[in-house]
Amino acid sequence: MDDKRLDRIEDKLDSMVDHMSAMDATLAAQHVSLTDHIRRTEILEEETKAVKKHVDTINGGLKLLGIIAVVFEIYKAMK
What we know:
This protein has one helix at 3-78. By secondary structure, the chain is an all-alpha fold.
């Protein structure tokens, strides 16, 4: 092979190495971002569990009040 061709091959290899290095840097930055996203998601999931528990409690209380009202109306109608 002549020197020009070897130089072109080396240039192409250098270009590929630079491109792969840039990809590695991007991947590392995305990993950090993903780790932070996972952490925030876990925090929000815990908060959502507390809100859901509160909503379920309120719904249960309202159902109980509805049942008491029905029983009271039936009792009132029987008198």
